[in-house]
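#random but structural
TW: two for the price of one
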Amino acid sequence: MVSVIYATTPTIAQARTIARELVKEKLAACVHIIPTVESYYRWEGKIEETDECALLAKTSQRKIQKAIQKIREMHPYEIPEIIVFPPVGGLKEYLEYVNTETS
């Protein structure tokens, strides 16, 4: 089973470092980086506006917790945004590729 982990980082350099490490350690088969997303959120009672980078890491079910742990330990935020999207389907060959690359 394949899932997508969505996370944000404050800089492209941090996004690239995390992406490389996830792929290198076989915690993700592929990571897409969206270089700029505008984020609006409430933090400690204030509305914040900032530019961030988004990561979309494709991984197998068995690697989700290790990937989350790796992102967390490499991330500068106190509470990083890390969300796992459950699979609802996909191209069979691509799903097999992700499972192979994360085994």
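TW: number two ↓
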Amino acid sequence: MSLYADENFPLRIIEELRRLGHDVLTAFEDGKANQAVTDADLLTRAIELNRALLTLNRQDFKRLHLQVPNHTGIIICTEDPDRVRQAQRITSLSLRQWSCREG
């Protein structure tokens, strides 16, 4: 899966996703971190790169999904201290699902 992680997404999860074979680009690696880039701009960038966006920012990205329904995918996660388990749940997700929390 080709993913684009926003600047607040946990690095340990990103590392594990890469280990599991995913192509993950971070906002930091893309030169978009620490620049007050808006969430809408991050989603636009993910769309340009044909990547699903990874975020912990539930409220803003649910709103953006409704405003910009033609995106490559938005994977909204809840905080989980077990980073490896969270990466495994992301791996098992369909891009049509909204959350990688259990339940």
